[in-house]
Amino acid sequence: PLKVDLTNMVLGSDAAVNEGLKALKEFRSRFKLSGHYVLAFYLLDSTISDCIRSRNEKAMLPLLKELRDLLPYAKQHAVAQKIQAKLMYAELVLHIFNKTYSKGIEELQQWMKRKETWYHAPLGYINLLMGARLYYLHHLPEKALDYLNLMRPFEKEMRESILLAYRFLHLLCYSQLDNP
What we know:
The chain is 75% helix and 0% strand. It has 180 residues and is an all-alpha fold. The longest helix is centred in the middle third of the chain and has 21 residues, at 77-97.
């Protein structure tokens, strides 16, 4: 994963996706998922993130399937939560990319029924922000605010970039509600 991250910094997301795919191919040829699920998760996580940054849905879809297939091997609860959180995030992002907001909202509602599987993962609150974005983009700012309000307990631990997006979306929602 480090080489993939360095490639992203130096050559950009497209090159990092290619490097990640090469690393995954090498990983699959040498190791079994069942015994090395943590390493597989971090490699998949990094490559999926690069796919999102470069909007490479074609490369991301098989990686999401592989990440889903990794779940039964995740013996550590924290790793299973991270996998679930990443799956949710990537699936919601795809709905935003494809402008399928109503389908994304349906999927979000299903994920919320299984909140215990991802909610306490590090950065799991980002999925709440993605839910708020879906509702806002679907012209439902009052529902977006519901999801933003669920993020309040995490304000003190949010990364600055996430906090900025969170507050900006708050302002947009209130602005839209005040000026229909």
